[in-house]
Amino acid sequence: MQNPLRLLVLLSLLAWTPVYAGFFDQLFTSPQSPSSVSPNTITIPNEAKNTTYAPVLDNVSDYRLGAGDKLGITVFNEKELSMDVRLSDAGSFLYPFLGEVIAKNKTIGDVQVLLTRQLKDGYLVDPKVYVSILEYRPFFVNGEVGRPGGFPYQPGLTIRKAISLAGGLTARASPTKIYVIHENDPTGVPRLTTLNSVLLPGDIVTVDQSFF
C-alpha cells in the first residue's frame, strides 16, 4: 500500500496544475493590445475618397476676359485713343478706327498686342499701348447664405470672404459642402472647394444645406 502522505501531496499538485500553467503562459507570452487597430490608423469615409476639390487659382493677372470686365486703354500721346471700355455680353468692345474688338477669352496682354498690331497697320507709326483691368466682372453666391446674388470682384478674394459679403452662412448651411463653378472651366461641373480657396471673376459659388 502506498504511503497516504505521498498520495495526498500528489493529488494536491495535480489540482494546482492548471493554475500554474496559466501563470507561465502569461509570463512568457507577449501582451496583446486591447485593440487590433493601430492608434495611428485613420478611417477615411468612402464619400471622401472620391472627393474632387476645385483647383486653387490664386493669380488673376492672366485670367481670361469676359462680359462685364472694364478695361482701361492708354495709347501714349494719343488722347482720343485712350479710353475706358466695358466688355459687352459678347465679350467685345468698340474702338476708334478698328470697330468691334473681340476680347472674350483673351488676357489683357493679348488685347494689348492685338491693339498695337492693328493700330500699327495703317494708323500709327509706333503705337505704345497699355491695357489694364479697371473693374472685374462680378462673382455669384447662391444657396444657404444671407443675401444670394452677384457681387463686385476684388483681387485676392477667398470663398470665406465672398460668403461674408453675401451675408454669411445661414443656420442650415454646411461649411464643408461648398461648391464652385469656375467660369473658364469647360466642363461647367460644380466642384467641392474650401473656405480658403481663391475666387476668380465670374465664378459661381453654391453653399449646400447641412442635413444634421
Structure overview:
The protein is of the alpha+beta class and 212 residues long. Among the domains are: 70-135, wza like fold (2-Layer Sandwich); 139-209, Outer membrane lipoprotein wza domain like (Outer membrane lipoprotein wza fold like), CATH 3.10.560. The chain contains four helices and ten strands. It has helices at 4-28, 46-49, 108-120, 159-165, and strands at 70-75, 83-86, 92-95, 99-102, 129-135, 139-143, 149-151, 173-181, 191-192, 204-209. A five-stranded mixed β-sheet has the order 7-6-10-8-9, covered by helices on one side. It has a three-stranded antiparallel β-sheet with strand order 2-1-5, with helices on one face. A two-stranded antiparallel ribbon has the order 3-4. Strand 6 and strand 7 (149-151) form a beta hairpin.
Q: Tell me the fraction of residues in β-strands, as a range.
A: 15-25%
CATH topology of the domain at 139-209: Outer membrane lipoprotein wza fold like
Oligomer: single chain
Count of individual helical segments: 4
Instruction: Supply the CATH architecture of the domain at 139-209.
Output: Roll
Query: What's the CATH first level of the domain at 139-209?
Result: Alpha Beta
Number of beta-strand segments: 10
Order of helices and strands: HHEEEEHEEEHEEE
